[in-house]
Amino acid sequence: MPCINCNIEFEGEFCPTCGEKKHIDRITLQSITTSVFSGFLDMDKGLLFNLKNLTLYPKKTILDYINGKRRQVLNPISYAIITISVYLFMDSILPRGERAELAKVDLYGAQEMGVKLGYFIRSKMKFLWLTYAIYAAFFTKLFFKKYNFFEHLAVNAFILGHATILAILVRLVYRKELIIFNVLVFAYISILLYKVFKNPMDAFGTGVISILVVFLSYLFFLGVPFAIVNFFL
What we know:
It is a single chain. By secondary structure, the protein is mostly helical. It has two domains: 1-41, no CATH class; 43-232, no CATH class. The protein has nine helices and no strands. Mean pLDDT is 78; it is low at 98-108.
């Protein structure tokens, strides 16, 4: 019979060309619910597969994906988007530390603009969190070289998504923003970078470069939006 998807004649339960099933079930509430949750709750593929394997085997999971073993893995951009979305939702409903209201701060001229700019960046940067992976990919490509830019982007999206899991856990435990919060997240990113790019012949050098990559990426992550906002204000 012909495949409903690509019209190739085949025998058996699945099309050898595109993998479509021979018999297509009707769409029902049960089929929709099962389809949605299977992608998130299946330990052998999807979100929970990423959570488990990036925690236990970060280097193997990421490099297997780069080398083509992708069937079970939730792709890195989707993984980062999902974890960041969860964090943003949670951050919107959990309490924050007290902040001074700008209206009550007696400042003038450039000082006032500087404070407003700093407040704007601090409050809005979390919505640009995904762009950190782009800056990190540039620097990992620069220092570690081995892969092309988009492969480095995949590596850093995996790492960013998984580091966001740590951010979620920290916010759940402490419920308020902490000064040490960013330190913990970026330390974890450095550790994951080190594990993925570790050179047995120069472990110390890999560690130093991993920290440097995180530092430079964070500077650009903050600096580029700062420069853009400053230009238009």
